[in-house]
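Researcher: We're teaching a course module on how sequence relates to structure. For the next exercise, students receive a sequence and then see the predicted structure as tokens, so they can try to spot secondary structure elements on their own. Here is the exercise chain.
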Amino acid sequence: MSIKSILAAYSGDASGSSGLKMALLMARKYDAHITAAVWHGPSLLESRYRSYMNREVLDILSNRDAEAVAEIRRDFEARMAADGEGVQADFLDLAGVSDFSLADCARGYDIVVMGARAAEVGREHFAARPDVVALRSGRPLILVPHEWSAPHLNDHALVAWDGKRAAARALGDAMHILETKSRITVLTIGDHEPREKPGDDVIRLLERHGLEAERLIRPAGRDGIARTILDSCREVGAGLLVMGAYEHSKFSEDLLGGVTNDIFREADVPVLMSH
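Model: And here is the predicted structure for the students to work with:
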């Protein structure tokens, strides 16, 4: 089964545009359909002061958000007219479905593509959270850096492999994409090659899928594991990073820091994550 249905979280800003660019390239490569989805919660003003607002003020805020959604739809349609020739696409407005999140919506698609979390001033509540989608959707997510732009998809992928559950999930979810790559690097962070265990041979797994992969071992640098992973992507020229998300709890990562959060903040290549 190949990728046939892509959900592109789109807010009409520059960050969302980078995700849409990648979604278009993927749609052409895999002959897939794109659904651009816009979602938003209450504005910061409404969240803080709703109990003090009368109906007239709430209606003004609601109308302002409806106008923003209409503008985002027009922007999406213009981008598709300019760059989406031959690509099947539609637009989904989730703004009026209060009990249906972007993570819920994602379960009906093969993969989610979205830009790093950012939004124009005044539209912060339109910025979908990739960490929440990765954690709750049950679907793989590709996070695209803010300023990413490429004329085509890079055919080299790097898989960050530690042998744990989340990494295995990401590898399985990425297999349809990896099978289209001409080069795969499997990166392990450590001071020496990991001791082989029965059945724990990711290189052999890839070979049985007809894929050649090379193993790369790098010690964790002084700037941390995330920086070592991203530096390794740059070193080998990988255009896609595949890794597991939140092997430890999201709460502990938010509180103490962790690789997933660091990658979300610092990635300069598209990252496919699964939890």
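Model: If you want an answer key for the exercise: The longest helix spans residues 55-83. The beta strands are 5-9, 33-38, 89-93, 111-115, 141-144, 156-160, 183-189, 213-218, 240-244, 271-274.
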